[in-house]
Design brief:
Length: 136
């Protein structure tokens, strides 16, 4: 990170949570971040928030993204969306969150969801078997 980037990060001590989630690369667009906040999947310091709520260094953000729960501590803010290595400097994941995500990943590998290996349309033979199953 250059001195200009550090200066820019220092100038912004508070930032809207929807913009921070976008800048930290948890969401591709601010609109997706806003929709997740409004759906109640984002909490700030344990409380549901609105998109205009401001985050500052030291705040804990809990995010439920799909099946994954992220708990991160805000380490900085940035007005612009930067490359991923720079975006990772905006937060620090808690050790409990890292352990929980690793455990989820391991569980997913050990017991894949039924039908996860299926790709595309069934073959003619599989289609006949399916229709035969439902015709009984």
């Amino acid at each position: 990170m250059t001195d200009d980037d550090a200066l820019e990060m220092a100038d912004i001590s508070r930032q809207r949570i929807d913009k921070w989630l976008w800048a930290a690369r948890f969401f591709k667009t601010r609109r997706l971040a806003t929709e997740a906040i409004e759906a109640g999947r984002i909490k700030l310091n344990g409380h549901p928030v609105k998109p205009a709520r401001e985050v500052k260094c030291g705040d804990l953000v809990e995010m439920k993204l799909g099946d994954t729960l992220w708990v991160v501590c805000v380490r900085g803010t940035n007005a612009q969306r930067r490359p991923a290595p720079e975006a990772r400097r905006l937060y620090e994941e808690t050790p409990e969150s890292v352990a929980h995500r690793a455990q989820q990943r391991e569980m997913k590998q050990m017991s894949p969801t039924p039908g996860a290996g299926l790709r595309g349309r069934p073959t003619k033979k599989a289609g006949r078997l399916i229709r035969g199953f439902f015709d009984r």
